[in-house]
């Protein structure tokens, strides 16, 4: 019972605004059995306290796919790898808007327009995205979001002015591990984009991918960085190894390691929406319904960028079975 009292103390500490120490974060990731169950109960309490039994759903459209000049080791869309992703230029304005309609019909609260590539360039493509965002903001109940790569001051401001509610830009992994994952741009450029999006008045959705070969300490390091950056919401992905990428033979994260990681992020980010996105089905398998108990407050539904999600009806049944409600907008 002493251990449970320690964890109650940690939960109280987190609620008063004091994050876990780095060591406490690592301890959560390495806990097992009844000890983990206690951490899990604490994470669930933190999630319920901030979000109740509402889960937020988001969905995305892969608006422009493939031929990216960056070399992110996990990504099927990098032109540096031997993968065979779908490759096409920016979808039309009508297709982007139709995607918003579908997202709304499926109950998502947020609809992300995602493009491959280092950064958007001012011009026809960017104008198409701005125009679609503007119309989505006016006509739909879903919040438009964009994930277009690195931003400049001007690009960020144009997106905000068009009505883009949220800018999505993942840090991918811990700063100390990033050079093993990407060498074509610097971690600081990603951090700068997060700051520029915030400064322009958008919310920032920023997380990473777990299972790239990072250590427990580096998973905690990522959580600490996201806390320091005060991002508005945190998407967590788990590697789904793609043939032809440098990580094609990486082992998946075990289901229990996934839930322990979600729990650890909840302790560091007690009031932030944490959404489970890519790799949910392949990594968590039978434990997918545990994500909300473990501290997540949302999930992506529908398809991911280059891989398929599971049938929406199966997810809806899962939400009903575990007695959580979904939040439209
Ligand atoms: S993650 Fe984004 S920036 Fe990196 S290779 Fe893939 S599309 Fe390009």
**CATH level 4 superfamily:** Aldolase class I
Please tally the helical runs, counting DSSP H or I stretches of 4 or more residues.
13
Domain tally: 1
Tell me the overall shape. globular
Low-confidence stretches: none
Order of helices and strands, N to C?
A: HHHEHEHEHEHHEEHEHEHHEHE
Beta-strand percent range: 5-15%
Distance between the termini: 42 Å
> What is the average per-residue confidence, as pLDDT, rounded to a whole number?
93
Name the helicity range. Answer: 40-55%
Per CATH, which architecture?
Answer: Alpha-Beta Barrel
CATH topology heading: TIM Barrel
Query: What summary fits the major beta sheet?
Result: 10 strands, parallel
| Rg (C-alpha, Å) | 19 Å
Number of strands: 10
CATH class label: Alpha Beta
Q: Any ligands, ions or cofactors bound here, and which?
A: iron/sulfur cluster
Structural class: alpha/beta
Short précis:
This protein is an alpha/beta fold and 329 residues long. The chain has one domain: Aldolase class I (TIM Barrel), CATH 3.20.20.70. Helices cover 44% and strands 14% of the residues.
Care to describe what's here?
There is one protein chain. By secondary structure, the protein is α/β, with parallel strands linked by helices. Helix 4 links the parallel strand 1 and strand 2. It has 13 helices and 10 strands.
